[in-house]
């Protein structure tokens, strides 16, 4: 997951491959609540692991519900059988509407029936998201609910006991958020000694979400009778009983970004989206129909969608999005690539989501150069002509969907626009529902190699290149190439095979077929973890010896280039800026005095439990410097256009800031 201030996406030119969607947020949080309230144990597979489910799980634990993760990644919840073992709790629910609304209903009803005092609160934006209609409905039933802040908004205190009045139908508005009705449907079975009737006032929005609720209640043994979309009856004697084992389907709203990606950029072969298919429960899967209307070619499989570009440019559409409010945001960005305007209506609920999404969407689309009109419940987006596309730093308003759908704007070269980087501010906000969104995207997209930025950090041994590279890459969300590891691995493998480090032909042949891979900060040769073995001083000297052989350098050239992947690379070594990435936009030559470097290496070895000798280290290091600087092939010299950084008296943090400052000078993003 990227926890960085901003992410610069290079201009993207295509997409291909297969991805697996994270579990549906809506289904995950409904299932967690039902499993916690039900009788019996429930094992949930493919549950979403993200901020919104984490706050729900924390709240359930605070309410006395036990759950644990299994070795296969599934989650087991011990149902409480409708009785909370704790009578007081204070739960923080972040910005998760799918946790706040149903928990408010559950705790209000249980406190009324059994007594208790519970508090629900969230982040400041959650305290601006209305809940009055649900609270009014629960108060009408007799629940005692106290507004702890602004009336009609969280935080709330739910108290009991209180006398519940279930003889009359419960009335709830359906035109602000369908989550209010869902909250009542999920929790009224807890008190259904008699038939309990819910009547919806106003036009019910987001009906597909109610269908999810009804389908999941059915799995837990509660068969709600529905008359049109106005009246729902929970039969007397209804009880929530665990079905035992359940699987969460992939998140259909999250699928929208990849359906759009396929429609825009999968020109050679379809992009395959696993986790939802023709029998999907979630209404947002109908986003695929909207994308098809704009031109996408979609093949519906049982548990997957295969999407490729069809009509190009896309076709502008006019669509009432009341049934797909979340996924509809993606259409607004696709609209930039169409040949006529796109008008989205029925999106009043966008105003009260993670942010005012109509305003946010209009503001950010305009930054890209688009003409956008907005109304109380609609948005019209005009296509962008190739020459009108502008690069921008996109604000995401702590809204995961803003970050995800605007990432698609990095595909602007496909519309004929000049390739430019696109900045996404606070990309970590995707953690709400899709923590690995960007990593998933990076695995699927293609960019021209020359468009993928590379920062080179070259310098002598123990100058701190590796440390600086890791930190800078972490701050930018970029990949890392520690090229010294490739020479070290070659030396190690040659020694293991009994090949002399001076045998150029055989060492080069070994280097060409190195089965190296990097994962979780470790380095593997075949299946063997060689991370620690690589760091031995003797292997460092061996690396220096094999690195002096031109055939070995040539053998490792392609492998090093292959590290240049979206979104960018920070590469450390001796010749990154001079030989491997000579056109890199930023090259840094890092130095420190030999004494300082020997001292750092000494401390580094001692801290790892190795014995070390200062004089010996200084001698080896100077010998290595000499060998690296004087060899004929790619000697250690600063590139002509490199920035020189002597960090003898500079801390690691200060060195990182200096490099980031140089890097920032190379970027141009209007705020
Ligand atoms: N600016 C600095 N001040 C003090 N110590 C530093 C500084 N930069 C790095 N170090 C420390 O120096 C040691 C060597 O750093 P590092 O391994 O990053 O060097 P390197 O140049 O990558 O070495 P090599 O080329 O041998 O792989 C580490 O323990 C690191 O924490
Ligand atoms: N681009 C590079 C990187 C490394 N080398 C040689 O490998 C030795 C080990 O490198 P470390 O960065 O891991 O210390 C180094 O002494 C160089 O001889 C290289 O030539 N080119």
UniProtKB/TrEMBL annotation:
It is an enzyme of class 2 (transferase). Its main location: cytoplasm. Transmembrane segments: none annotated. CDD domains: CMPK, EPSP_synthase. Pfam families: Cytidylate_kin, EPSP_synthase. It is found in: Cytoplasm. Keywords: Amino-acid biosynthesis, Aromatic amino acid biosynthesis, ATP-binding, Cytoplasm, Kinase, Nucleotide-binding, Transferase. Its EC number is 2.5.1.19, 2.7.4.25. 3-phosphoshikimate binds at residues 25-26, 30, 177-179, 206, 326, 353. GO terms for biological process: amino acid biosynthetic process; aromatic amino acid family biosynthetic process; chorismate biosynthetic process; pyrimidine nucleotide metabolic process. ATP binds at residues 459-467. The active site is at 326 (proton acceptor). It catalyses: dCMP + ATP = dCDP + ADP; 3-phosphoshikimate + phosphoenolpyruvate = 5-O-(1-carboxyvinyl)-3-phosphoshikimate + phosphate; CMP + ATP = CDP + ADP. The keyword Amino-acid biosynthesis applies. One of its GO terms (molecular function) is dCMP kinase activity. Phosphoenolpyruvate binds at residues 25, 97, 129, 179, 357, 401, 432. HAMAP family: Cytidyl_kinase_type1 (MF_00238), EPSP_synth (MF_00210). PANTHER family: AROM/DEHYDROQUINATE SYNTHASE, PENTAFUNCTIONAL AROM POLYPEPTIDE. Monomer. Belongs to the EPSP synthase family. NCBIfam families: aroA, cmk, PRK11860.1. Catalyzes the transfer of the enolpyruvyl moiety of phosphoenolpyruvate (PEP) to the 5-hydroxyl of shikimate-3-phosphate (S3P) to produce enolpyruvyl shikimate-3-phosphate and inorganic phosphate. This is Multifunctional fusion protein. It comes from Inhella gelatinilytica. The gene is cmk.
């Amino acid at each position: 997951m990227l926890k960085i201030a901003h992410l610069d996406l290079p201009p993207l030119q295509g997409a291909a491959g297969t991805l697996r969607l994270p579990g549906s947020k809506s289904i995950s949080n409904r299932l967690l609540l039902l499993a916690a309230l039900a009788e019996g144990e429930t094992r949930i597979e493919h549950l979403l692991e993200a901020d919104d489910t984490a706050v729900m799980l924390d709240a359930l634990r605070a309410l006395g519900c036990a759950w644990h993760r299994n070795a296969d990644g599934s989650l087991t919840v011990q149902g409480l059988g409708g009785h909370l073992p704790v009578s007081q709790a204070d739960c923080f629910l972040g910005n998760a509407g799918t946790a706040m609304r149903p928990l408010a209903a559950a705790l209000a009803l249980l406190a009324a029936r059994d007594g208790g005092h519970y508090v629900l609160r969230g982040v400041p934006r959650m305290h601006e998201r209305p809940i009055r209609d649900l609270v009014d409905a629960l108060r009408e039933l007799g629940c005692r609910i106290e507004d702890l802040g602004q009336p009609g908004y969280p935080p709330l205190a739910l108290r009991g006991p209180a006398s519940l009045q279930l003889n009359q139908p419960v009335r709830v508005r359906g035109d602000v958020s369908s989550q209010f009705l869902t909250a009542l449907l999920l929790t009224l079975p807890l008190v259904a000694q008699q038939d309990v009737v819910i009547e919806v006032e106003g036009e019910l929005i987001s009906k597909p979400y109610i269908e999810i609720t009804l389908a999941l209640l059915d799995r837990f043994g509660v068969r709600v009778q529905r008359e049109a979309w106005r009246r729902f009856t929970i039969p007397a004697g209804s009880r929530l009983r665990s079905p035992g084992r359940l699987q969460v389907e992939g998140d259909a709203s999250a699928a929208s970004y990849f359906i759009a990606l396929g429609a825009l950029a999968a020109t050679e072969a379809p992009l395959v989206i696993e986790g939802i298919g023709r029998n999907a429960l979630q209404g947002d899967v109908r986003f695929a129909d909207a994308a098809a209307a704009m031109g996408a070619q979609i093949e519906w499989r049982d548990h997957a969608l295969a999407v490729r570009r069809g009509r190009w440019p896309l076709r502008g559409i006019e669509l009432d999005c009341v049934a797909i409010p979340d996924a509809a945001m993606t259409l607004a960005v696709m609209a930039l690539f169409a040949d006529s305007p796109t008008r989205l209506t029925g999106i009043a609920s966008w105003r009260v989501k993670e942010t005012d999404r109509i305003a946010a969407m209009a503001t950010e689309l305009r930054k890209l150069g688009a003409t956008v009109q907005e109304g109380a419940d609609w948005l019209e987006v005009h296509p962008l002509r190739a020459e009108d596309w502008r690069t921008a730093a996109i604000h995401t308003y702590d809204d995961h969907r803003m970050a995800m759908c605007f990432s698609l704007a990095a595909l602007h070269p496909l519309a004929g626009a000049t390739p430019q980087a696109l900045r996404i501010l606070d990309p970590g906000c995707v953690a709400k529902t899709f923590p690995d969104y960007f990593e998933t995207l990076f695995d699927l997209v293609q960019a021209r190699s020359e468009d993928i930025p590379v920062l080179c950090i070259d310098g002598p041994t123990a100058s701190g290149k590796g440390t600086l590279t890791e930190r800078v890459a972490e701050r930018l969300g970029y990949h890392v190439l520690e090229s010294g590891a490739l020479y070290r691995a070659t030396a190690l493998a040659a020694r293991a095979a009994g090949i002399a480090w001076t045998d150029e032909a055989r060492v080069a042949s070994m280097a060409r077929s190195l089965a190296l891979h990097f994962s979780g900060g470790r380095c593997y040769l075949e299946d063997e973890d060689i991370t620690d073995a690589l760091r031995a001083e003797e292997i460092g000297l061996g690396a220096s010896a094999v690195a002096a052989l031109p055939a070995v350098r040539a053998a490792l050239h392609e492998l090093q280039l292959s590290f240049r992947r979206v979104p960018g690379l920070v590469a450390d070594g001796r010749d990154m800026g001079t030989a491997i990435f000579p056109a890199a936009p930023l090259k840094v030559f890092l130095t420190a005095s030999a004494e300082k470097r020997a001292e750092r290496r000494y401390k580094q070895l001692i801290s790892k439990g190795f014995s070390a000798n200062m004089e010996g280290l200084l001698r080896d290091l100077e010998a290595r410097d000499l060998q690296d600087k004087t060899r004929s092939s790619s000697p250690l010299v600063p590139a002509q256009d490199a920035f020189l950084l002597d960090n003898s008296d500079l801390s690691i943090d200060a060195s990182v800031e200096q490099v980031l400052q140089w890097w920032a000078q190379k970027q141009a993003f209007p705020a």
